[in-house]
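User: Okay, second chain of the day. Same drill as before: sequence in, structure tokens out.
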Amino acid sequence: MLAAGLAAGAAWGKEADGSGGGAGLADLFDALRQAEGPAAEQIAEKIREEWARSGSPAMDYLLERGYKALEDFDPALAVEHFTAVIDHAPEFAEGWHGRATAYFRQARYGESLDDIRMALALNPRHFGALTGLAVMLEELGYDQPALRAWRAVAEIYPAQEGAAEAIARLSNRVEGTAL
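Assistant: Same drill. Structure tokens below.
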């Protein structure tokens, strides 16, 4: 299953955002690459809001219920809500990303990696899915792929909390330090 998760890396270089937001999202991504601190987080939040719009009030409601279940520390219920989203809107990347997060919180890493792969196939610039992939790979001891994932996050969202530190830490482990 790890191989399936790592296959998501093939999508990292693509420029499509997979969410149908058009020029508005492209402008937000350009701004995100330049922004720092609170301004970067505000832009990232606007992107997340765009990603959370499926075009269907019912799917948006199920997605909200899934994230509410995660907030309430009920990942099993979250899986149910996100699975319903995926069943009815399999092209909606946020359903896959939400379920990947819920699976991760249940330590169901193989299933989480599979869903991250799907989220990234639908939305290659999904910095949340890439961050989740990076964290999971590092936790599982796959430092080189984790470093690649963190670098992909930093290309999209340079101010992502923890990205620079993770890149430095993993670079030392993977590439060593110059003498």
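Residues 127-178 form one domain.

User: Thanks, on to the next one.
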